[in-house]
Amino acid sequence: MSPLILSAAGAALLLDTGGQGLPRVRHFGAGLGPVAGPDLLPALAAPAVPLLPAQGDSWYGRPGLSGSRTGEHWPVRWTLDRLDAEATPGAGGTVTIAASDPRAGLELVSELAMDAGGLVTMRHTVTNTAATPYRLEGLTCALPVPERAAELLDFTGRWALEKVPQRRAFGHGVWSRENRRGRTGHDATGLLVAGTEAFGCRSGEVWAVHAGWSGDHVHYAERVHEGVALLAAGELLEPGEIILAQGESYRTPQVYFTWSGAGLDDASARLHAHLRAGRALPVRPVTLNNWEATYFDHGLDRLLELADKAAAAGIERFVLDDGWFRHRRHDRAGLGDWYVDEQVWPDGLHPLADHVRKLGMQFGLWFEPEMVNPDSDLIREHPDWILGRAERMPPPQRHQQTLDLARPEAYDYLLERLDTLVAEYALDYIKWDHNRDIAEPVHDGVPGVHAQTLATYRLLDELRRRHPGLEIESCSSGGARIDYGILARTDRVWTSDSNDALDRQAIQRWTGLLVPPERMGSHVGAPHDHVTGRSLPLAFRAGTALFGHMGVEWDLTSASESDLEELATWIALHKRLRPVLHAGNVVRADHPDPSALLHGVVLPERGVFGFVQLTSRVGSGAAPLRLPGLDPAALYEVRVAGPVPDGAAMPEWAATPVRLPGSALGELGLPAPALRPTSVLVIEVVKVAGCDMRSHADF
Ligand code: GLA
After folding, report:
1. In this predicted model, what pLDDT tens digit does every residue of 141-200 receive, in sequence order?
2. CATH number belonging to domain 589-695
3. Angle formed at CA 491 by CA 510 and CA 312, multiple of 5 degrees
């Protein structure tokens, strides 16, 4: 029996489909070239992890499926019923596998695909075929990683400091990142990565998994004592959450697997390519959000002035944040009452929206659809719409509770409100927030996060269907809802509630593994950061925001003329570089100096890099700037883009553009400037047309 191979963009997945049971995965990693033939499989040393690991297939680690049936439990042993595959060597393909176990009363359908960029997606659907209810406890997707995957990298975090890396040795046992917050979570790992020893952004071999799901979830890495290791992920189910009656099915979220032979960057690039191959985004307008400028103070004159200043600085979209709806003078009341407050806005939002549009900007509005304050007309009228037991309310967070969206009346109410407001104000944009962890969710007598998450997805999908041009931002107290489930239905994420550029450098670097720059909201905050209290120069704040979907969250009515001018310069630079920043390959150098970062975005013809001095350097000489990701055989013109940082000692090349081959830029590097801490130097490289160094033997 020949193996079934999916291959694309240098990656391959090899399935052993011989035998009665589920196919076994024998390889996920580097492309294998033209391997085929019946003799191959017995000769392969690679592990053989069943597509759904189970004891019946000699897997003694954590099972892929767990569940029970009172009194008549049969451990599952699958029989393969059908396998449909469409695979084109080098172009990926799809595999659908149907299996069943009549004794256990279960059927399984597994869908596996490799896209043109070598990214693997997997999901399983299990159906109860027996007369008695099947209590599903877990169904995850897994792929093996080879023995040489010696280290694990995952991420944790909190409000205003998301995606903090943590690393450890990949020993025997399970390293499990579990989330029971009812939303993706500030501490969500995003990617769980296994890699060869000391892997970096540009070196080492890495494998990574991500669950595209915005409710409770689990990502785990396991190595059993036979030495076989795997990465797995899926939804995390509470006991009793999924009870399948005869004929009912449960489908896992889409789980993403990525591999790279050259560090995290390539693994991340496959994910970015997958997102980018989906819905095409219009040019990302530079955005002003009024939250940190005015908070709940919605005086019209102040907002009009803010809009004037924003437009003058080159901003293209104005977003009115929290505080515009009934009773919302502070965060203790009003959530749920999605009607424009008649006292604060006697003429509706029209005077502001019209003014914003006259200035040539788009208009956007903040919502927090799934949330309610008990102090709201909605909850006074419908106390039973709260997700939880009405007799004993869940503990509050930020004075709020969750609306039970799986309840049709609550869902219909929200859809009507959102739909009406989007239509009335022709909203270009919604910032869709979710500001609490969900505690003690009960829907219809069972744990309710699963149903809640699906209802949110339905609501988003329906709203988009009705308003195809509407853009939506996923926010959740900053970056607590960033995953490929929500990103399939939204256009960008609010990366963090921290606009502190120093913290943002790290938050954006690691959030950026999953989220490409054009979908990562990054705003220029106030001179004194509202969260950390740190004062940072405008050039550093702007040079940090430049590399994402740039915006401003600062009271521009209080900014000096010179600050406004400087801000306008940075916004103009962002607009000029946007075609590269929002479409290129993200590269993160493994810069040897821990006090600095070097990162960039590269297209075949152009690249933009940021050299970021975070803290003071220990050594007196700065390490060279080896620019990654360039074509070694091309000649590039290199120049400083944007302002030279204050107090910088600049090397000679910075004075006038120089021409250097990509090989020299990548291998030898540019002499680095000596920058003060909290400085960014933006460097631009442009390929010199018609000059291919491949003909110059010396390079
Ligand atoms: C959350 C968001 C902020 C802002 C406030 C408004 O904290 O992350 O950006 O919208 O809510 O209440």
Report:
1. 999 999 999 999 999 999 999 999 999 999 999 999 999 999 999 999 999 999 999 999
2. 2.60.40.1180
3. 95
CATH of domain 287-579: 3.20.20.70
C-alpha distances (whole Å) from 599 to each of 52, 179, 492, 590 are 39, 31, 21, 9
* Amino acid identity, position 117: G
- Tokens representing residue 188 in the block: 């969500």
Q: 489-498 as b/e, with b when 16 or more CB fall inside 10 Å?
A: bbbbbbbbbb
**What average pLDDT score do residues 645-668 get?**
96
Q: What is the CA radius of gyration of the chain?
A: 26
For residue 321, give both structure tokens.
């944040």
pLDDT at 38: 63
What stretch(es) of the chain map to CATH 3.20.20.70? 287-579
H/E run at residue 503 = helix 501-511
CA of 478, closest atom in ligand 1: 8
Give 401-455 pLDDT, tens digit per residue: 999 999 999 999 999 999 999 999 999 999 999 999 999 999 999 999 999 999 9
337 catalytically annotated:
no
Ligand 1 binding site (Cβ under 6 Å of any ligand atom): 291, 321-322, 366, 433, 435, 475, 477-478, 494, 497
Residues of the chain with CATH 2.60.40.1180: 589-695
Q: Is the pTM of this model over 0.90?
A: yes
Query: What's the CA gap between 187 and 278, in Å, rounded?
Result: 27
Q: Of 337, 404, 497, 503, which one is the catalytic site residue?
A: 497
Ligand 1 atom closest to 331 (CA): 12
Neighbours of 618 (CB within 10 A): 8
With CA atoms as reference, report the closest residue to 121 among 491, 485, 479.
485
Question: Among residues 136, 78, 142, which one has the least CA distance to residue 108?
Answer: 78
CATH number 2.40.128.20 is the correct assignment for the domain at 4-278: no
